[in-house]
Design brief:
The protein is mainly alpha-helical. 73% of the residues lie in helices and 0% in strands. The radius of gyration is 19 Å and the shape is globular.
Length: 317
């Protein structure tokens, strides 16, 4: 078995684990506010952050070198977390994933003003085609748009903004700074909202949130291994396998069906996203490669980021 094949298979397993995490989010979302779920997710994620702090040998403090960019990224990540968790609780899994798959398209657009990236005609056409796929999924005028649809779109936009800011300041900022500020902000903001939305949680639901934290850690480790073994241009597209798991879990657990509009729209979005990823993998592409460098998973500010862990393993420079 070749390295790229092995890397792709490991990535497929990683995104299956991520999808299982999202299933738990959806199950808990039927009973609890996303503010409460995010709060306890962050709370149970702090032990892993503590371990990361202990292992971090980089000299420096927790003061951001780019405070305004760090603040903007913190706001974007916090909005992404609450929006994504709400979208999973309100919409069919496949619809949420289809909309979140638009993130690479938005990253491509944001790379122009933030990174100074030059986007040529073919990539612009890919972006426009992908955004038309989002419209197909949303099908305005066909089915009433809900707050869940708006939340999924906000999560995609917030994730794209957070990712592109990492590409801009990631070489200067300590990884722990990019991690701790969103987590602390989530903890404070969600904690402030908690008295207004809190519902008592039985032990099995608290265990469910603990399992979520463990699943994210496991999936992140698998993604790291996948990128270590295979090329990024092969590993990155494996995120789109989540639409398969969404269809399977949605059918078996939530009586959801993958309607034709979502299927067609997702296919359009995935095709355009694949084109952008493959285009960035070519030798004449810009060194920024903002999409390939995002590590393919929506960041919610509730757990460890994959990028710093990969740098710790010597994969990223």
């Amino acid at each position: 078995m070749g390295n790229n094949t092995k890397g792709a298979l490991i990535a497929l397993l990683a995104f299956a684990v991520f999808s299982t995490h999202d299933v738990i989010v959806k199950i808990l979302g039927a009973s609890y506010s996303p503010f409460q779920i995010v709060f306890f997710s962050v709370l149970l994620g702090f032990p892993w952050v503590t371990l990361m702090l202990i292992r971090d040998t980089t000299s420096g403090n927790l003061r951001p070198r780019h405070p305004w960019w760090t603040a903007l990224r913190t706001v974007a990540t916090t909005c992404t977390g609450i929006s994504a968790y709400y979208a999973f609780s309100a919409l069919p899994l496949a619809q949420v994933y289809a909309i979140l798959f638009a993130t690479p398209l938005l990253i491509t657009i944001l790379s122009i003003p933030i990174l100074g990236e030059q986007v040529r005609l073919r990539r612009w056409l890919a972006v426009l085609v992908g955004l038309s796929g989002v419209i197909v999924v949303l099908r305005p005028g066909g089915e009433p748009l809900s707050l869940g649809h708006g939340a999924a779109l906000l999560a995609a936009m917030g994730s794209a903004l957070a990712s592109i800011i990492v590409r801009k300041i990631g070489k200067d900022e300590r990884s722990i700074v990019l991690l701790i500020f969103p987590m602390m902000t989530n903890f404070v903001v969600m904690g402030a909202a908690l008295p207004f939305v809190y519902e008592p949680m039985p032990i099995e639901h608290l265990v469910g949130i603990a399992v979520m934290s463990l699943l994210v850690l496991m999936a992140s480790a698998l993604v790291i291994e996948a990128y270590k073994v295979g090329e990024a241009v092969v590993v990155a597209p494996m995120q789109y396998s989540q639409i398969i798991w969404a269809s399977l879990f949605g059918t078996l657990l939530f009586n959801e069906t993958l309607d034709g509009f979502t299927l067609v729209g997702a296919a359009i979005i995935i095709a355009s996203g694949l084109y952008i990823v493959l285009r960035e993998g070519q030798s004449d592409a810009s060194e920024n490669t903002p999409v390939l460098r995002t590590r393919t998973r929506t960041e919610t500010g509730t757990s460890l980021r994959i990028g710093p862990l990969m740098r710790a393993r010597g994969k990223l420079k």
